[in-house]
Every structure is written in structure tokens, then in C-alpha cells.
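Handoff note, outgoing to incoming analyst
You'll be picking up this chain. Sequence as last confirmed:
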Amino acid sequence: MTERQDWAASQEIGTLLTLLSELEPALGQEVLLGAISRAAARPDGRRRLARDVARRPELLTGQGALADSPSILRFIDALVGAGASAVIVPSCPRCGKQRKLGPPVDGVRICHGCRAKARALPCGRCGKTRPTARRDDNGHPICQNCWHQDPRSWKPCTACGNNRRVAAIIPDGPVCQNCRPGHDLPCTFCGATDSRIGISRAISKPVCERCRQRWIVCSACGTGAVLKGGTLDKPLCAPCLNPDPTFWKRCSTCRTTWQLSTAQCTRCSLDRKLKDIFTPPSGTTLPELDQLREALIQSDRPHSVDTWLTRRGVRTTLRDLASGRRRLSHEFLDSMPPSLTLNHLRAMLIVSGALPHRDELLAALETWIDQALASRSFPEHHRALHGYAVWHHLRRLRGRLHGNPVTDQQARNLRQQITAATAFLDWLEDRELTLQTCTQADLDLWRTDHPGHRQRSANFVRWAVTHRHASRLTAPSIRWQGPAGPLDQDRRWTDARRLLHDDTCPLVTRTAGLLVLLYAQKLSDITALTVTHVRHHDDRTFLHLGSRPIILPAPLDALVDELVAIRRSPGSGVLHEESVWLFPGHRRGLPLTEGALARRLHALGITPRHSRNTALFALAAELPAAILAKTLGIHIPSAVQWQKIAAGDWNSYAADVSQRPRA
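Most recent structure output, in case you need it:
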């Protein structure tokens, strides 16, 4: 008879098997004997285990914290791992969480955290009852916080030389937390060794701190969750990594999130924090903030929202909004001190539906004009600048919008025009002059001393003379005579081939660069494109740049289709929004600015202005002006002028270009 047959044939084991056959009839005898073997290694320990369980069967159904021997807890884990349904893993009697139970305290086994609290003593320095970290020379207990402030725990770090708290002792001497050597094992997902490495209970492999908190989109089910397995290219969430429900624990609040502990999941923790922030002293939360809170909780990446709440000024701004002193509106937000946090918060309120949509660039432009007008001290100059800024530029801008938002280039041009007019008026006031007393000699002196404002201030002077704010002044206008830079068709096609076939370039930059190189589009027109400009018919992709659509050739059509499919703001980690823009920007509800797009193209060696001129020159030489205007969306007079430059007067144009100074 073998040793296993010997202890299995004992009376205690037989009684235990009879008890378990009634409690778990689905488990066979071999499975039960294997669970007993994993719980106790020696025959006498197995007999003791069987005797204790037979005497107190309630230990297997939730009273395991009262077990005298830790082998009973191991036996419960082995039975649950084998598929037992009636056996219950015991929770900590103090905190109620399902954690590993340690040695008994007052006859009851509790978890490690509760055991440390149970053994806490009054600190000999601060007097607070906390777990003991050290003892002083008299034997009095010292808590961890007081020990961190003790001079004995601070020594010069042998690595960086700074006097810091000792985190570890290496052969060279004490080191601080920053210089403490990390784990030798690399992270399974990212391969990093410079972060805190721990063994994941989900995959039993080393995982760094960053990857333990990494939020991913599961490659199997497509849901957003914390990374649990797989790879960074094909990540997996908890249910897809291990579909066994008994392997995972649940969130203590929602009871739905699969995780390795019973702590609050990220969404429930975020909900609790937002309720605390949005609830004013009166106890009545604004309905608009309830909409924002629901949108933030349902975000694709709730951990990004949690990180955003820790930034400076975010909680203060949110509490000011939730104070309930005024109704939440754009006017109320305008009255608050301007900041980037407030702009971001306004955009999220618009996305969540708490605030109506408005053109933020136009609103900022109106505020800027009001500030410029408020700085005028002469009533005559105030009236002139008000008419020029509001009734001339701003009114014309609104007339050209036709319901579309203001582009960044339009706002920049209007600011430059008004800035030049303001600078000219300031120059006149410094010399105690007005528009009526200004002479042609004074205007010529201004144009000579301020070449940067020469052309734009001339626009203001001509407007002032036309509207009788000034008289006897002449400011000539400069007519455009064609592109000033060289036109290199070979480089244009080289850049186009590189963008078409180089997969290492970002998708947004590739598509925008091809629209410049192939279809001579301005950056302001490219950033104004929406998903409605892209249409599909008979397996072909059409792009509306003008009044007539363009059939996109391969592989440009695939790039545009992919851009439509993944359109999302780069900053949408906090609050997800399906952007209507083909090139969405970082600011919510706004497209990518021309400046940002120009910087991306310059980084690839593409100059947007010269590339567009080269493309427009080639297209104007091949297409009639009417077709060019309808297809590319440019004005007919501009198309006629480009056609004249490209074909009609080529010799004179080349001679003219050779005589021009190059910037």
C-alpha cells in the first residue's frame, strides 16, 4: 500500500470525503484528494485538516476566518480552483474584502492591512494611533510618518549625493527612492526596466507600474478597459484574457468590472470624486453639471479624466462653476478669469450638451476688438477704429461665413489689419496728431519707419479717406503679380510620391500634403474640410473641393477613407467626441489650425506656399479657368490670372521672376 493510499484510507479522510460528496457532488474523489494534497504536504497535517473540517463544516461555507490552521484556507482555495460552487472563499471580518488572510488576531484571521491596524499603537511623538515603523532609544513606538521626518532616516545618497530619505542599502551605501535599483526583469508589455516591476497575478509575468495602469481598446471585444494581457499591438481586457468568472473579483460599487481586487473601479471612483466636486454647500447640483458628470464617467478613458482632475486649478474652477451663484452660460464663463483650463472646460460642456455651441474664434475676436477700442483716448480715433473694425472688417467677415465657423487664418488676418490701424493711430497720438490733421508727409514718414505695417495700414488709410475720417491722404495698394519663389515640378512629384507610399509619415500630414501638392489647396481650405465633403459612389471616393467633386485616385482614396474612419481629436482622452472635421484639432469642436498643419508639413521638408504655387501653375497650364475654379474651389478671377501666368505670358513671367528679389 502506497503512502497516499495509506492516508486516504484513514478514518478522518474518509469522513471528510463523505462530507464533501454531500456538499460538492459534482467533484470526484480524485479531485478532492488532490485538493487535500495541495493543502497539506504531510499525512499528519492532512488528518488534522480532515478532523478540523469534519468537526466544523461551516469553515467551508464562509467562516474560514475562524480556522485554526492555515491549511484550511489553502484547502478552500484548492476546492474553488477545482470548480466547487458551494465552497465560499472567506472575506476579511474587519474590512469585508476578499483578501488573503494572515495569522489570527484575537482568534480571528484578518488581512494584512487590518492586521497592521489592529497592532497599531500610540506614536511616541505625534500621539496618533498608527502601525509601528520603528522604536526610539527608549523603546517607544514611532509611526511611519514620524520616522520619515527623523534625521536618522535621512542620509546622503551615494548615487546622486542629495540628502534624502533612505530607500535601500546597496553595497556602495544608502540610496534614495529615485536612485534605488529597479527590478532586473523587463516588463512583459513594454520591456521597460526603469519602473516599478511586479509579477501580475493575471498572467504570472513581470509588469511595470505604467502598464498596470495602461488603458487600452481590447483587440478581441473592442471595449475600453485596463490592460490585462496580450501585447501592446493586440491588447486584451480581463474577460477576454480569462473568461472564467471565478478567476476575477468585482468592483465593490458597480459589481460589474472584472479586476483582481474588490476595490472601486476607475469609473466608480471617478463618479465619487465628481459628485464631491459638483455638489455645492446648498446640496443642489446644477443640471448642466450633471450632464457633464455623466459624459465624463462614460468617457472611453476614465483614467485620463482622473488625471485631469489632479491638475492645478481644475478642481477650483469646477467648484466655482458648481457654487450656483449664477446660471451656467457662456456669459458666466466669460466673466471668470481666462485660463486654458476654463477653455478646455467650456469645450467639454459644449460636447456634453450642457452649453450651446458657439463660434469660439469669433467670440474671442469680438472680445479682442472691444479691448482694442477701449484703449482709445481720442473720441475721433475711437469712432474711426470702431467703424473700421466692426462695420468694415467684422461685418464683411460675418457675410463671408454663411454659417461656417471662422478659420484661424481669417481671424489672424483681421487681427493684423486692426493691429496695423491701432499702431498708426498710436503713432499719431504720440505726435499729438489726428486723422484730420495728418499730412501726406506724416503718412510717408510712418510708412518709412514701419515697413511691417506698410500695406495693412494703407488699407486703413484708404478706408478712412473714403469714409471722410481723413482727407488729402494717398496710400497706394500693391497688386499681386504672381508667385515670387521658384517653381520646381520635379520636387513636387518627388514629395507627392513620398507621401503616397511612405507609411511612416502621420496620416493627417500625408493627406494634407497630398491635397496641397496635387490639388493646390490652401491650408485654410484643407482644415475647413468636414466629413460631408467626402462621398462614395460605385466603390469610388469623391472629394468636394469646389462646386464639382473630384474622383480621388488610389492610394489617396484609401488615405482619405481611413482619415474619415478614425477622425477623433488627439486630445479626446478626457471626453470622446466624433469630430465632424476631417482634420480635428486639439481644442474640442475646432479643426486643426493652419499654423499647426504648416509646422507638420515643414517638418517633412514641404513648404506649403511654394508647393501650392507649383501645383496651381501646373494645373492652370492644363485646365481652363472655369474648370479650374469649379474643381479646386478658387475664385474665377484668380483662375484666369493663374492661367495667364502659366500659359499666356510665360516669357514675360519668367523674365519678371528673374528680376524679383528673393526672400
